[in-house]
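Q: Predict the bound structure with guanosine-5'-monophosphate.
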Amino acid sequence: MERLKTRILEEASVLNQDVLKLDGLLNHQVEPELTLEMGKEFARLYAESGITKVITVESSGIPVAFATAMALGVPLVFARRKKTLIADPDAYMERVPSFTKGIVTDIMVSRQFLKEEDTVLFIDDIIANGDAARGLIKIIERSGAKLAGLGIVVEKSFQAGARTIREQGIRVDSLVRIKSLEGGTIQFE
Ligand code: 5GP
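A: Predicted complex:
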């Protein structure tokens, strides 16, 4: 998406060689029109996949996942981050390390909202090492639902996340791929 690349160059700042600050577009402020465009693009890519639900992890994945669900005409489910130590028998739970916060959180999806008969499209904002994605993929697998693929807004392809997930045989589509942040410069693939 060329427009997204332009907006990233205008809005993003490189914090260090691994981290891009995208508060103006994804993590703090969102642009409704651009977000709707992203959703339409994911919906186009998965138009023939029989998607019954879009799924994401709160919170930054929600706007673009909502836009995708809207374009596909299906519900959106977002995995919630839980602080409780009590296991909920009615929920799927996974522990995931957070790339930016340096802490571990539990993500959970109620069994009520993810069923064996579902075909899901997993949407997320940014992929780095892929820990968050792998956590939700495990939950989807445990539910018996079919995972059609993973739609990512920004793939940092110099980190291993998306590659290792593709190696697992899972389809991954990224709207933009960044191959380097070295020297404070954003380089797209
Ligand atoms: P992963 O689990 O793939 O290592 O990291 C995924 C999550 O960490 C993303 O959903 C995103 O919220 C956050 N994250 C990873 N890398 C970056 C980055 O360069 N910039 C920002 N703003 N968030 C990031």
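A: The longest helix spans residues 32-45.
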